[in-house]
Amino acid sequence: MRLALGLFSYALTSGVEQGWTAPSTLVCVVGAVVAVIAFIGREASAEHPMLDLTLLRGRTIRGAALAQLSGSVAMVGAMFGLVLHFQYAFGWSPVRAGLANLPFIVTMLVATPSGPPRASVTGSRRWRVRSR
């Protein structure tokens, strides 16, 4: 999985510099996809997997995992994209661009522990989305 994330991150940065259709960018994207597929295949056949894929058979767990994954990808993608934007658009150094994200990171660190107590007061059923 580290290989997939590394290749995808490199593809994002090289895509800006070299172009999205550059061979190095495309090779990194394809390599990342292959690495994710290999990870899933390995986890499905492992005796003691890091991620037990049988957990995702339940509809509730699968939906919660997908929601968490979507939120995490969006959050990390926004932070990563902002750092690149600050560097390329404003000409900031990597350190200054990283420090510009610090208020966002500190807010998450402060606000995250307040989630479970709030959920225990309001209850989880109150926020459930209903579909037909």
Automatic annotation (TrEMBL):
Subcellular location: Membrane
GO cellular component: membrane
Topology with respect to the bilayer: Multi-pass membrane protein
Keywords assigned by UniProt, alphabetized: Membrane, Transmembrane, Transmembrane helix, Transport
Record field: transmembrane: 23-42, 63-86, 98-116
Keyword Transmembrane: yes
Provenance organism: Nostocoides jenkinsii Ben 74
Name the UniProt record assigns to this protein: Putative MFS-type efflux protein
Domain of life: Bacteria
